[in-house]
Amino acid sequence: MPVMAILSIPAREQTVTDTVTIQQYLYSLGLAYEQWHPATPIGAEASNDAVLQAYDADIKRLQQERGYVAADVVNLSPATHDLEALLAKFDKEHTHNDDEVRFTVAGRGIFSINPGSTPVVHVLVEAGDLLVVPAQTRHWFTLCEERRICTIRLFKDATGWTPHYTNSALEQQYPAKGGDV
Ligand SMILES: [Fe+2]
């Protein structure tokens, strides 16, 4: 399975697929991006515990580096109860009081970042991509057309990612398109 994020900057009509360039650009915006590899291969039927175990070394390292204390696994798919209502909480520009830390185990999603002083950036994440959206960063999130993602979340306190909406409506100006960015 290819492991590759795609970054796009609509205002500049620019798309970036080179991992190092993506990492450097996101770093310049204050976001962390890494690629992780499982210690042992994990299948689509792996339990949440098996998923956490496979990435245990990177989880523990990031927890120590950034002070996160907990990790869990979230699976979203068309079978998820109230999937669209759940997604609707995060598809408008918002901030959180804590970092939003997401490692994509499987599936795909798009984080859209509004850095403020530079143009909006879409980051399509898929298997192997770790993204840290720092606290107070303006952003929104959508799934791709298959509506499916398995993600590891690292956090200090589950209440830290309550969305605080900016009501900018910027997500309408820069929509993340389903299967693309
Ligand atoms: Fe968020």
Care to describe what's here?
This protein has helices spanning 19-28, 48-54, 56-66, 83-88, 170-173; strands at residues 6-9, 14-16, 32-35, 70-76, 94-95, 100-114, 121-126, 129-133, 138-143, 149-155, 164-165. The protein is α+β, with helices and mostly antiparallel strands and 181 residues long. The longest helix has 11 residues, at 56-66. The model has no long low-confidence stretch (mean pLDDT 93). Bound molecules: fe (ii) ion. Fe (ii) ion is lined by residues 90, 94, 96, 100, 139, 141, 161, 163.
Short description:
With 181 residues, this protein is of the alpha+beta class.
Largest sheet: 9 strands, antiparallel
From the alpha carbons, calculate the radius of gyration and give it in angstroms: 15 Å
- Indicate the mean pLDDT: 93
End-to-end distance: 19 Å
Overall number of strands: 11
Question: Spans of 5+ residues with little confidence (pLDDT < 50)?
Answer: none
Please tally the helical runs, counting DSSP H or I stretches of 4 or more residues.
5
Helix-and-strand structural type = alpha+beta
Please estimate the helix content. Answer: 10-25%
Tertiary shape: globular
* SSE ordering: EEHEHHEHEEEEEEEH
How much strand content do the residues show? 25-35%
Instruction: List the bound ligands.
Output: fe (ii) ion
Quaternary organisation of the protein chains:
single chain
What's the SSE blueprint?
Blueprint: E1 6-9, E2 14-16, H1 19-28, E3 32-35, H2 48-54, H3 56-66, E4 70-76, H4 83-88, E5 94-95, E6 100-114, E7 121-126, E8 129-133, E9 138-143, E10 149-155, E11 164-165, H5 170-173
Antiparallel strand pairs: 1-2, 1-7, 3-8, 4-10, 5-11, 6-7, 6-8, 6-9, 6-10
Residues 90, 94, 96, 100, 139, 141, 161, 163 line the site of fe (ii) ion.
